[in-house]
Design goal:
Largest sheet: none
Helix content: over 70%
Number of domains: 1
Strand content: under 5%
Oligomer: single chain
Radius of gyration: 18 Å
Number of strands: 0
Shape: flat
Structural class: mainly alpha
Order of helices and strands: HHHHHHHHHH
Distance between the termini: 50 Å
Length: about 200
């Protein structure tokens, strides 16, 4: 059982440490909000990610990829949302220079944002689902729960750990560096959303 739990942790850390929508969301919240707020927002991200993991484990990605029309719809909607998020990050970059702690990032906005960055990335949903679905086929029924516990433990350690480290160090970082981190994050997110839309267009035409 312990070996299965550790296996889940290793697989999860390999997935969660890649630069993606959720990590950029956590980074920006940690750099732009007070520590107690950013830790709460990290909790929102972890809850959304745990839900995504369970959905992926149940094969939602395989269901989406089985239908070309459904996949194109999901990628179109997801791509548009991703672009909207990226533009929002770029527009808010100036607050890093002003030293603003972004109190306007309300609990409601952070909660909604956590769910958006978890589920608005259709390609990640598909890829994660297919990977976890394949791994599920190698597990006995009694191994499923410890594997899932390993996965969600690993993501909790990552999201809260990164938030804590950045929250404690952000006041020592140059303000212009924070601005450029926001701009780079926004460009990456916007570019990824545009790539999704481009893939939809090229598939149709």
């Amino acid at each position: 059982m312990l070996a299965t739990y550790l296996h889940g942790m290793i697989i999860s850390i390999a997935l969660v440490t890649s630069i993606g929508m959720q990590n950029l969301f956590v980074f920006n919240n940690a750099l732009g909000n007070k520590l107690r707020h950013s830790l709460l927002y990290a909790l929102f991200v972890w809850i959304a990610d745990t839900t995504l993991t369970v959905v992926a484990f149940l094969g939602m990605g395989a269901l989406i990829s089985s239908s070309t029309l459904l996949r194109l719809i999901v990628m179109s909607v997801g791509g548009a949302i991703v672009i909207w998020i990226g533009i929002g990050i770029i527009r808010s970059a100036h607050t890093a220079v002003l030293g603003d702690v972004r109190e306007e990032t309300t609990m409601k906005a952070a909660f909604i944002g956590a769910w958006v960055v978890a589920f608005a990335n259709p390609q990640a949903l598909i890829d994660t689902s297919l990977m976890l679905g394949a791994l599920r086929g190698t597990l006995a029924s009694w191994q499923v729960l410890p594997f899932l516990l390993g996965v969600i433990t690993s993501t909790a350690l990552w999201f809260f750990g990164i938030t804590l480290v950045l929250g404690l160090l952000k006041n020592r970082l140059p303000q212009h560096l924070l601005m450029w981190v926001n701009i780079a994050s926004g460009v990456i997110v916007t570019g990824y959303g545009a790539m999704l839309i481009y893939e939809v267009i090229t598939t149709i035409f």
